[in-house]
Specification:
The structure holds two protein chains of two kinds. By secondary structure, chain A is of the alpha/beta class. Chain A contains 20 helices and twelve strands. Chain A has helices at about 5-10, 15-35, 65-80, 100-110, 120-130, 140-145, 145-150, 155-165, 190-195, 205-220, 230-240, 260-275, 285-290, 305-310, 345-355, 360-370, 380, 395-400, 415-430, 435-450; strands at about 55-65, 85-95, 115-120, 120, 175-180, 185-190, 225, 295-300, 320, 330-335, 375, 405. The longest helix of chain A is centred in the N-terminal third of the chain and has 19 residues, at about 15-35. Chain B contains twelve helices and two strands, in the order H-E-E-H-H-H-H-H-H-H-H-H-H-H. Chains A and B meet through helix 2, helix 4 and helix 19 of A and helix 1 and helix 5 of B.
């Protein structure tokens, strides 16, 4: 037999039947994978009459440590006093950021895991609503209109308006905020005294802030402040106090390369250039360093409380003040919600739990235990005695800032914008790129993210 | 039974067939676990990946047929090409550094007189291989911290101005290549050391008698005799490097400005951050094609320098 012929014999051939079988296997494998996604029910939900007995199971998915499950369990115990036939389970996800949480959540849902309620911060609310995963709560809001009116009276109007405007789609409501965070400057009073600085007050300016930072560095001998390449806790307060934002008011176009944005970024870059803050790229732990008394001023929401308590920090040494201004008072606001998933088989019980998050018992727990590191949504608990429990005396300032705060821009592709912003600010802060050039590139990236 | 035996006692055709079948069944039974795992975790996902690359699928809603749209997108996706270039650069640097330094270390250890010293060096070089990438990444972030990292500290003492290793787009990729070298060199080193120990001493003695010096013996005896081992080490290092994910994901997240974005990380981001699974499958297939191509080139080149004669 000639070599070529032998080769031809040895070469496997694919028959028409074999080819079709291969195609069918591929299609079957793909179909099996895509079928993992759980079917989202269509049509309006069945709303039970008010006061109807509730039963069944509720599963809640949240971002946090296993230790926080105990806190949720304590809330479940209170809930079950009123609804003993409802059994609740909290499932936690441990992740470095919200992006990973959203990814894990979508994978779990696609994999067929059933949840009734999920903890969602502002960053992911429009994303999940736009994917049709979240239940529209309007039927229950209408059913319980009187009760909701009473609760709404205790919540800042600016917050309610922001939630409605930013997370409603097609005029439908999906989220009720049970707590939120604004951005304030937390400072160490003892370090201010050591540097012979006056205590900062609402209305202090960027110039005052810079002077205070220099004095803290030179006279108190500590790291003056911390500036990070983050979005919410990093650049956003500076943008807002400079009268601008990263996106336009409709979250449809980028303002990244406008003069006001560049000015705010430059200001932060200079803080690092002057050695008032550490450059990004290392193991920065502003919270730990602040708790240890090694940093004079840091921007936080309410999340440091539990760490400060654990470290037994003297709360009387901690001051909290509104962000320094350049053009106007400003702070971002991000809120936490427990939306109901459309795949939930127990939506009426889930709604009852959503409402329960605004009850006196839960709001008091949020105020006293700093659950999820947020401020309770209801004013009665956010500025009353509960919020002062083992907390700085200035704590009500965090709630009061919501009256002038702006919602963190969180369009559907917020995760892409946040990642690009982080990368851009890092390069600017270390001097690897000029602010104007880097922000121009960011502007383009954000434009592409908003277009998809 | 007697009816199937020939007079000479040789097995008949029927007996041979039965025995053959039994052997076949045993053979299939032995390979069944591996075959099942291969089908479940390699073949079926690969076929699904090919099929999904022709769809638009966000995981949560049913997939839609997209035809060649994902492939057209790939052709114009500058980020994908940058990721591919980064990955190939990483792989080339990784293969060169692993083989050169691994070989040098293997030669040094092979010549060490003290057994204890050999043991210590082998353990020390191999130790990072068993450290998880998460721990290694954290360790190096401390070591190279721009404010208090000890390398930064000593460079400053020497009057140098160290860069922000992981944020500078000039230094980020070389930093990751170096960390990967530290982390995975041990494996290449052990493979090469094992290969080195199979080179017959008699060949060295014969070459020495013929007047060959150490350098000549290295090139004309050691390298040819070790060429299959070197090829194996180069291929496994290249494949591992082309699939690199962890250091980028943990340390730099692909930044700055995508300068450390590897193809695997881009596939991950596309699949599990952007949830465009169809396009992620297209990218994954592109990576598979790159691995096949580079491995094929390595095999093709090996015909010129690898010898299997002993």
């Amino acid at each position: 037999m000639p070599d070529d012929a032998r080769l031809a014999d040895a070469t496997p051939t694919v028959s028409r039947r074999g080819f079709l079988a291969l195609g069918a296997t591929m299609a079957g494998a793909a179909a099996a994978l895509t079928a993992c996604g759980s079917a989202v029910p269509q049509g309006p939900p069945k709303v039970a009459p008010a006061g109807a007995p509730l039963s069944g199971e509720l599963r809640l998915y949240f971002q946090g440590s296993a230790a926080e499950i105990a806190t949720w369990n304590s809330l479940f115990a209170v809930f079950r006093k009123a609804h003993p036939n409802v059994h609740l389970t909290a499932v936690n996800n441990i992740g470095p950021d919200w992006t990973s949480f959203f990814a894990n959540l979508q994978i779990k849902i696609a994999g067929g895991q059933k949840f009734d309620l999920i903890y969602l911060p502002t960053e992911g609310q429009r994303l999940f609503a736009s994917k049709g995963l979240i239940q529209n709560i309007d039927p229950w809001l209408r059913r319980d209109a009187a009760e909701m009116r009473s609760l709404y009276q205790d919540i800042d109007k600016n917050l309610l308006a922001a939630v409605k405007k930013r997370t409603s789609l097609r005029g439908e409501n999906y989220y009720l905020p049970y707590g939120f965070n604004t951005m304030l400057v937390w400072y160490r009073k003892s370090l201010f005294h050591k540097a012979n600085l006056p205590i900062p007050h609402r209305g202090w300016t960027w110039t005052d802030y810079l002077s205070a930072a220099r004095a803290l560095r030179d006279k108190a001998g500590v790291q003056a402040l911390s500036t990070t390449p983050d979005y919410f806790a990093g650049i956003e307060p500076w943008l807002l106090t400079n009268g601008t934002d990263l996106l336009d008011s409709r979250w449809e176009s980028s303002r990244a390369s406008t003069p006001a944005v560049i000015e705010a970024v430059e200001f932060n870059r200079n803080l690092i250039a002057e050695n008032l803050a550490t450059a990004p790229g290392g193991i920065a732990d502003p919270l730990g360093q602040f708790a240890a008394g090694n940093i004079g001023m840091v921007g936080f929401g309410r999340w440091p409380i539990n760490l400060l308590r654990t470290n037994k920090v003297d709360m009387s040494d901690i001051g909290i003040v509104d962000w320094p201004i350049k053009q106007r008072l400003g702070s971002p606001v991000g809120w936490g919600s427990l939306p109901i998933l459309r795949t939930s088989q127990n939506k009426n019980a889930a709604w009852e739990f959503v409402k329960f998050m605004l009850s006196d018992a839960v709001q008091r727990t949020i105020a006293r235990e700093a659950l999820s590191g947020v401020v309770p949504a209801r004013r009665s608990f956010a500025v009353g005695s509960d919020i002062l429990y083992q907390s700085p005396a200035d704590s009500p300032v965090i709630y009061n800032a919501v009256s002038y705060a702006s919602a963190l821009p969180a369009p559907t592709r917020e995760n892409l914008i946040e990642a690009a912003l982080d990368d851009t600010l890092r390069q600017i802060y270390i001097g690897a790129s000029t602010t104007a050039d880097a922000m121009k590139r960011l502007n383009k990236t954000i434009g592409q993210a908003l277009a998809t | 039974m007697t009816a199937t035996l020939t007079a000479a006692g040789r097995p008949t055709r029927v007996q041979r067939t039965i025995r053959q079948r039994r052997e076949n069944v045993s053979g299939y039974a032995f390979i069944a676990p591996a075959l099942l795992l291969f089908l479940l975790f390699v073949a079926v996902p690969l076929l699904a990946c090919i099929a999904l690359s022709f769809t638009s699928w966000d995981v949560l809603t049913p997939a839609k047929w997209a035809g060649l749209a994902n492939y057209r997108k790939l052709a114009h996706d500058s980020v994908a090409w940058q990721a591919l270039i980064n990955t190939v650069l990483f792989a080339v640097a990784s293969v060169v550094t692993h083989i050169v330094i691994g070989m040098a270390l293997a030669l040094a250890v092979n010549r060490m007189g003290s057994r204890i010293l050999r043991y210590i060096v082998r353990t020390t070089v191999f130790f990072p291989v068993i450290v998880s990438w998460a721990a290694a990444a954290l360790l190096w972030r401390y070591v190279l911290d721009p404010d208090f990292g000890f390398i930064t500290y000593y460079l400053k003492k020497l009057g140098a101005s160290p860069p922000a290793w992981f944020i500078s787009d000039r230094w980020a990729l070389p930093s990751l290549i170096s960390i990967d070298l530290w982390k995975t060199l041990g494996l290449t080193f052990i493979i090469l050391l094992a290969g080195l120990q199979t080179v017959p001493e008699t060949l060295h003695e014969a070459a020495a008698i013929d007047g060959a010096g150490p350098w000549r013996r290295f090139w004309n005896v050691t390298v040819p005799m070790m060429s299959p081992t070197l090829l194996f080490a180069a291929i496994t290092t290249a494949i591992g490097a082309l699939q690199i994910f962890e250091p980028m994901y943990i340390i730099t997240k692909g930044g700055p400005n995508n300068s450390t974005l590897s193809m695997s990380e881009y596939v991950y981001n596309t699949a599990f951050r952007d949830f465009t699974m169809g396009y992620a499958c297209t990218l994954a297939l592109c990576l598979v094609a790159a691995i096949i191509l580079i491995t094929g080139i390595q095999f093709w080149l090996s015909r010129r320098w690898v010898t299997y004669d002993r």
